[in-house]
Amino acid sequence: MITACMIINSVGNTVPPVFISLRARLNDSLMFHAPPGSLGLVSSPQSTWITGPLFLKVLEYVKKHTRSSKEDRIILLIENRESHCTLYSILYARENGYHIVTFPPHCCHRLQPLDVGVMGPFKRKLDVAQHDWMTANPGKVVRIHDLASLTNAVYQASFTADNTTEPFAKLGIWPFSRLAFSDEDCEPSSVTPMEKELRNQEIPVPSASTPVEREISGTSKDSLSLEDVHPFPKTWTKM
Q1: Residue 79 pLDDT level (bands cut at 50, 70, 90)
Q2: What pLDDT, on the 0 to 100 scale, is given for residue 216?
Q3: Strand partners, 21
Q4: How far is CA 195 from the centre of its chain?
Q5: Which of 30, 65, 168, 202 has the CB geometry, 3.0–4.6 Å to 10, for a possible disulfide?
Q6: What are φ and ψ of residue 5, in 5° steps?
Q7: How far apart are alpha carbons 104 and 78 in whole angstroms?
Q8: CB-based contacts of 191: which residues, under 8 Å, 6+ apart?
Q9: How many CB atoms lie within 10 A of CB 25?
Q10: Residue 148's closest CA among 54, 42, 21?
């Protein structure tokens, strides 16, 4: 029902969040008791995904709080999404003192400070707040008009100076450190969850009577691949 855009920096300061609601027009009730200074936006009645025009409004909102300029520039670390990299956003960033750095695809869980150290505790506290609200209001459901107020106390408890500075240090962003990541962090992704278990196992060589050889009996030995002899394992979930 709502997408929240959170903004922090490496010295413990935060910009009040941006709430994008599932509506065609913004109503004051959607921002009732939201964190002070929050910005309310609407996307469409079908989606709350942030779009290029909405992200441009977020950039304008950040400039208002940071007062960035060509003489006093800031580094903006963002996810490498299409809506973040539109021509209008890039031109606005250049003119207003933003130096944009995007994270490589599928790396935000290890490189994005918000994901590493802030959003986890925030989501857990929000779950508790929603559960307590439903306990205190039996028979009712959390509406879109309740979300901003439920987020307020959780936001104040989660986005503290200690919580927002720690992930920047852990990731070596600030203070800068080349030792934040090891070679193991740069290993390629596994094909399946069981690949690591198979690394130390010997692959059995099929005998002449095995079904494998009967299936590939018409194939030349020179054209056999490892997958023909031992197919890649399928992913499974342990219950």
Answers
A1: very high
A2: 47
A3: 2, 42
A4: 26
A5: 168
A6: -105, 115
A7: 10
A8: 232
A9: 8
A10: 21
Q: What is the pTM (predicted TM-score) of this model?
A: 0.77
- Enter the tokens of residue 188: 């390629």
Complete domains list, the chain, with CATH: 2-177 (3.30.420)
- DSSP 3-state assignment of 165? helix
Model confidence over 109-151: pLDDT tens digits? 899 999 999 999 999 999 999 999 999 999 999 999 999 999 9
**What number of helices (H) and strands (E) belong to the chain?**
10, 5
Distances (CA, A) of 145 to 15, 21, 32, 84, 150: 22, 10, 7, 27, 10
DSSP state at residue 75:
E
Tokens 């539109």 belong to residue: 86
pLDDT in tens, 151-190: 999 999 999 999 999 999 999 999 999 999 988 888 776 6
Predicted confidence (pLDDT) per residue in 195-218, tens digit: 555 555 555 555 545 454 444 445
- Extract the tokens encoding 185: 């962090």
CA distance 182 to 175: 17
Q: Which two tokens stand for residue 32?
A: 């009732």
What is the spatial distance between Cα 66 and Cα 62, in angstroms, rounded to a whole number?
6
Angle between helices 119-136 and 144-158 (to 10 degrees): 130
Is residue 31 over pLDDT 90? yes
CA dist., res. 226 & res. 216, Å (int): 12
